[in-house]
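User: Quick sanity check before I run a bigger batch. Here is a single chain. Can you write out its predicted 3D structure?
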Amino acid sequence: MRRADSRKPRGARRAAAAAAVGAGLALASLAIPASAAAKPATSGVAKVVKAIDRIESKPMYRQANWGYTVDDQKTGKVLASQAAHKMFDPGSTMKSYSVSSALRMYGPKYRFRTPVYRQGTMSGGTLNGNLVLVGSGDLTFGLRKQANGTLYYENLPAIDQSYADEFPGAGAVEPPGNPMSALDELAADVGAAGITAISGNVVIDDRLFRSFDGFPDGLMTPIWVNENLIDLLLRPGAVGKQATIAVRPVTSSYVIDNQVTTVAAGKATNLEVSEPTPGKIEVTGQIAAGSPPTLKIWEVADPAAFARTAFIEALSRAGVTVNAPVTGSNPSALLPPRGSYQSGDLVGQHVSVPLAQYAKLILKVSYNRGADLMACLAAVKLGSRNCERGMAAEVQTATGLGARRSEVIPFDGAGSDDQGRTTPTALATLLRGIPRTPYGPAFVDALPILGRDGTLANVLSDAPVAGHAQIKTGNRVVGNGAGQTNVLGNSLAGYVEPSHGRQIVLTIFVGNVPIPNFEDFNTVVADQAEMIEAVYRYL
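Assistant: Done. Predicted structure follows.
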C-alpha cells in the first residue's frame, strides 16, 4: 500500500490514468423547488420509497447499484431500506468511523499538548545540551484557531486549503491565522525560562507513532506545521511578465523557483508545482491577466526537518541563539529514551483547543488527512505506533454500537482508499448509537448542516429542509485515459428532522454510475439531495 515519492502534491498522487475525488464535496448549488409541508400520514413511508424509486429508475442509473436505510432514531425501527446489507464504496462517509473512534477514545474535551524540554545543564542563560520539541499529533498546531476557541473551516462554494490542488480554479483559500503562532509561543516560553542560547541542537521528537505514507492522501506524522503544506498564492502581473508568488510559511527549508508567466486575459490558467531537488520548489505554467489569486499547495516531504527549521527560526525571533545549523535533517539520534522526559525540564507547552473542534473541522470540510490522523491517534490509544492499527479501532467503535464486524471494512481514516467498504445498515447502526454516547453531541455537532455550512452549505439552501439535516457526504469519482468517468460511490449518512417531529437516521449509497464527464456528477448530487428532501417532506 505504500507509494513512492511523498513529495508529490496530493493531487498528483493519483494514478496517471485515474483522478479520484474523495472529499465528500457537494459542489453543485442546488435549490429544489419548495413543497408545501404535508400532514403526517401512514402513507409517508410509501411516498418516500416512491420518490426514491423514481430517481433510481432514471436511465443514467441503469448500471448502478443503490442501497439505503431510513430508520426511526427513537424506536430503532427500519422504516424503509434497500440492499441494506450489501457492500458499497462509501467515500468520505467513512470518516464517521475514524472521527467517532477518536472522540470515543480521547473524549471531546481532550486537548493536544505539545511540550518542549531541555536536555542538559544550564550555565547562566546557555543550555549546554539540546532542546526537544515533542510532537503530539496536533493537526492545526495554532493555525485556524479563532478568538472564541473554535477552529476555522471553509463552507462551500469556497474550497479549503487542503483541496487546493484537487479543485483547481474553484477558489481555494488559505485559512486565517499565523502558521508559526504555536512555534512563536513555544519560543517565547523558552526565553521566559531563562534560556538565551543553546550550545547543542534542536530536535523534534516525532515518535508518538511511526510516520506513515500508506494512506492515499498524504504522509501521517506526529508533528504538523501549517498542516505540513507550503502555500503558494499566485497573482498575475502584466501580460508577458512574471507572476508573483506569496509563500506561506516563509522558512529556510525551501526556496521557490518562479517560472510562471502572465498571459492575456481570457486564456487558460495552467500551473504545475514540483520539487526537482530537495528544498527547491519549482512553479511553472501560466496565469491569465486579471484573474483572481490562485492557491497551489505543496506537501512537505520531511515534516520533522521542516518543523525543526521553523522552530529554530522562531527561537531566533524570540532572541534565543542556536549554535546548530538552521537547515538539515532532524537529528533524531540525539533524542533521549522514550518516556524519559522529566517535568523539571519542561520549558514550554502549547495547548490546543478541544478535540471536538478538530472533529468539526474534519467533518465539515471532509478533511482527508485530518481523518487519517484520527486513525493514527486511535492506534496510539490501542498501544500501537502503527497507523494501520487504527482500522481496528474503527471496527471496534462500530461493533461496540451494534454493527456487524463483516459490514465495516476500513482501509484508511478518510474513505479515500477504494478497497474500503461498508453497508448502509452498519453506518446507520453507528449513527443510531452515537447520540447515546458521551461523545454523541460533539459528533453530531460536527456534521455538515444541509444548506448552512461545510460541504452542504450550498445544497438545498433555499428549500424548507435547509437547516433540518446534518449529513456527512462522500464521493469517489474516477476517470481513465479513454475519457470515461465513473462514480464508484456517492453516499450520504446522517440525521434528518422532518417537520412532523420524527428523528430520522438516513443513509443513501449509489455506486457504479458511468457519466459523460465530471460535471454530470452534479446530477447525482442533486438526485440524492432530492431524496433527503422527500424524507423531510413525508415523514
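The CA atoms of residues 2 and 214 lie 4 Å apart.

User: Great, the batch can go ahead then.
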